[in-house]
Amino acid sequence: AARVSYPANRLANLKDLTVNEPLQIAYPDSDSPGVLIKLGTRVPGGAGPDGDLVAYSTLCPHKGFPLAYDGRDRTLSCPGHFSRFDTEKEGQQIWGHATQNLPMFRLAVDAAGDITAVGTDELIYGRTRNVL
Ligand code: FES
User: Fold this and answer.
1) Would residue 97 show up in a list of annotated catalytic residues for this protein?
2) Residues 33-78: pLDDT tens digits?
3) What value does the CA radius of gyration of the chain take, rounded to a whole number of Å?
4) How far apart are alpha carbons 56 and 120 in whole angstroms?
5) What are phi and psi of 16, to 5 degrees?
6) Exposed, middle or buried by CB within 10 Å (0-12, 13-18, 19+), for 104?
7) CB under 8 Å, gap of 24 or more: what pairs does 42-50 form?
8) Which of 56, 65, 99 best tests ligand 1's pocket when mutated (most atoms within 8 Å of CB)?
9) Left, alpha or beta for 106 (phi > 0: left; psi -120 to 50: alpha)?
10) Looking at ligand 1, which atom is closest to the CA of residue 79?
């Protein structure tokens, strides 16, 4: 099996976040934009004391267009060809041309509330490996 050593990048602190307001981040490097969201309800794969912290790539897995967050239904949507991904279900694709779910960035939260990205679960758009 391929072994990948991911960098651990500090993204923010719990006190920087407002429920349902996405914070722009990048992981595992500055060429890979994403969002960090406190959803306000516990979800599968959610991190932190409330199990409601999630982070995703915002490069569409179809052709790399930048995804936009819609707080009404908590999806990330693509302006390119309209793929949609569910932020409450580990980036599951709801509709569209993409052929994979959205890469979810795995998070760790320490006692001081610092949120760190520690890995990702799908291939980020445009890459042959997530960590170059
Ligand atoms: Fe997002 Fe095509 S680039 S659906």
Assistant:
1) no
2) 999 999 999 999 999 999 999 999 999 999 999 999 999 999 999 9
3) 14
4) 9
5) -80, -10
6) buried
7) 43/87, 43/88, 43/89, 43/90, 44/88, 44/89, 44/90, 45/90, 45/104, 45/106, 47/106, 47/107, 47/108, 47/109, 47/115, 48/14, 48/107, 48/109, 48/115, 49/14, 49/109
8) 65
9) beta
10) 1
Point out which residues pair with 77 in neighbouring strands: 68, 84
**Of 39, 54, 57, 62, which is the active-site residue?**
62
- Give me ligand 1 centre to Cα 76, in Å: 11
